Amino acid sequence: MSAVRPPEGAKAPSGNSEAHEVTSAGAIPQIEAVNDFVIKFANVNGSGSASANELFAKAILRMGVPVSPRNIFPSNIQGLPTWYEVRVTEEGHLGRRGGTDMMVAMNPQTWDADLAELEPGGYLFYDSTRPLPPSKFRSDVRVIGMPLTEICNAVYQDPRQRQLFKNIVYVGALAILLGIEPEVVEKLFGEQYKGKEKLLASNVQALHLGCDFARENLEPLGLRVQRADRVGHRIFVDGNSAAALGCVYGGATVAAWYPITPSSSVAEAFQKYCTKFRVDPATGQQRFAIVQAEDELASIGVVVGAGWNGARAFTATSGPGISLMTEFIGLAYFAEIPVTIINVQRGGPSTGMPTRTQQADILSCAYASHGDTKHVLLFPEDPHECFEHAAAALDLADRLQTPVFLMTDLDIGMNQRLCAPFAWDDSKAYDRGKVMSAEELEAGRDFGRYKDVDGDGIPWRTLPGTHPTKGSYFTRGTTRDAYARYSERGPDYIYNMERLLKKFATAATLVPQPVLRPAAEKTELGVIYFGSTSPAMHEALQALEARGIHLDALRLRAFPFPDSVVQFLAQHSQVFVVEQNRDAQMRNLLVNELDIDPARLVRVLHFDGTPITARFIVQAIGTHVEKTQASGAAGTKESA
Amino acid sequence: MTYIAKPRLHHPTLATNKVGYTRRDYEGKISTLCAGCGHDSISAAIIEACWELDIEPHRVAKLSGIGCSSKTPDYFLGASHGFNTVHGRMPSVLTGANLANRDLLYLGVSGDGDSASIGLGQFAHAMRRGVRMAYIVENNGVYGLTKGQFSATADQGSRSKKGVVNTDSPVDLVAMALQLGASYVGRGFSGNKAQLVPLIKGAISHSGAAFIDVISPCVAFNNHPGSTKSYDYVREHNEAVSRIDFISGRDEITVDMGPGEVVDVRQHDGTLLRLRSLHPDYNPGDRYAAMAYMQRHQEMGEVVTGLLYVDPLATDLHTALNTCDRPLNALGPAELCPGAQALERLNASLR
Questions:
Q1: Predicted confidence (pLDDT) at residue B197 exceeds the cutoff of 90
Q2: B 107-136: CB under 8 A from A
Q3: Which of A133, A217, A295, B200 is most enclosed, with most CB atoms within 10 A?
């Protein structure tokens, strides 16, 4: 079965064509759209643009219009190109659409590529302090020049201020051009610089410099932001913070980590939230321990030790970190120790694309380490699920006494996403799993560390220090009998390995179950997707439906695959598997684990490091379906 | 000793310690190491030390890496939980275990292959973090389980059993522990139990990272002429700087003191380390002097043993992190979960 991979640059209609029209305004056609466009900021890394661009996105959000921003940044501290793409989407499409309607071109280095990316009829906003020859523009793009450098040089003396406030000045100008209320931006400044009056005043001043210039010198655009009421109670947060908060709520007390993009902010946020919530006000003592270890080997080692000793523990890392951790992951699997690993995936293999997104660690995590291993993977779709699944991972790790991976990626982890608010039930108790107490031991309960007492493959364990004479055992990575005694006997080994499989089958009933999204009409076609692909997929399903292509959609939320996945596959003659890696890793896992005929699973693969777009999915699936239908029709004709 | 099964019953009049245990209660399984292995002597010293310290065996967590040395925790303190982890990375696992429950005593057992090669990084970082534990390296300068390769602690110029000369410089774990901030550093010899038992007692009672390097000749692969880790070689070149006794606080006695001869070091928990100086110029309270002293004697071909450095007021990682007194593994949702109301406030701040 061949892969379906349309070129990323291929154009397809956007999600809301009514609000997104190219009309003629004088000589140059221009895109007309209200609350439905993509604006992209091209900046230089380290120029201080990040907070200004985020401010821009938040201001639109505060006007009740959903936004979906994406940071596209290099693996570099300063000097290389960086982009911030904001999708303004009243319809609430939170995936990337593809294409750019307006470019704020602040990086001369990427000028040509940025200009080329604009949709016909789009807008180019640039710093016109130094004039550019006509050859540097496009005839089908409207150009808005503003002498940002000149304005800032005239007002500010300090070179750093001249640079930093340039960003705020363009936000002010864009606010006027697009109809964003400057008061909303001012209010955001007020929240950001609470208690820092000097900073507040200077930022407001810069904002008004931009507003005033735009009012006096620039023409209105065809792109508009208009107040709406489409955000509701949703929150705007990044997945790494959400996962960290999930670890706080889920009761993690020990975290060990080693800095690696894009996962570092998980540990940093855990530190922040623990400092806020877990410091005893009376004594100042901490109800948590965080170790920035010397490397990933030590990080996972600390987590294994803490898990063995009954604390809820996690580490956060990315692909190369997982590679380093695999020996310990095998130990935790075989010695049956609870471990939670948050893997914020990035572009691999090797150093790959450290600051770009992929879903390419699926197989390396599902089967991490040597020998026969299988691990539990969870696939959250957004920050809301990052929170929920992180807490669930801690429960599952304790219940199953095994490593559990939370498989997020850079796209969810490091981008703020609009999502359902976090929720917690205060009556919820932590599932500590099968831990035998001193009383139970004292009462004479038989304790065999690796004995399948309950028929679910999960044995009972005791924690160090529990009882003076009963329940102690020796943990090791070498094989053993049901009573944890060293054994190299084949039957003992087989008993263990088969029990571990039984435990894995039990896991399939405990993990978050898949979410079915049935098509409006009965169909033989299905699509499977997971994780950060979710919003782009939902938009693509709508667009495909508009083209008459109906697909039942199943969003996987975990491995092992529950029975409902088998049923879904059985009910459809052809199932597209959409994923963000080269080798169709999820498809391979489905084929391998469920004995599915590979011919029924069609690969839809996106792996250039950018988040998958609705446009890409529509193009890939649409083309494939229409081609198959055409050849089917031709075949029918011939045979008739 | 190695191949003889221990009798299940023991004499009813065996002496008990203050917590009601006999020495037999501190033993473990039958050793499967080679007969005469120095590691078995270290196990015996650990058993002796824990019995004498009146430690309840189940309050000890014993962790090790991989190798001959790392098998030994199975051979002592049978009522304790043990963990034979992965090669060289016991220190991180012990660190995690310690963070989970600060109330237990942690015994880390490792070998020279384990700690000085693959685990050198973890050894170093556990020392600098000040994880409270007794970290014992059973150092024979050779890989025993894989039959005789040099380890990283083998001295330059020493010979293997097959006659190969080691050309690499040795890693001196004691020098590293001193430099990295371990607050209790000693070196022992498995053939000198009288020195080893109090050294281990002091390490177990120490309130910070305690490290003991124990020269423990490998009878199978490194106990021959040409080895600098053989019984004969170490006996001939052993230079003990001090003799120590460990005295628990409640038993403080003041006997046998001569001016300038005996130093009592009172530790955080009130216990005393009584140091009888064999070398009048040796000061175990000076980290840098200890390093210089060791290196000077090493150049003279001497293996300096004894308590080389101690900071009696040392603190540990829990102190540095300011963790709560209750073990983290005993905290429940009431102490850990901020609750739905706090979450609502957080949600509001994210709109």
A1: yes
A2: 121-122, 124-125, 129
A3: B200
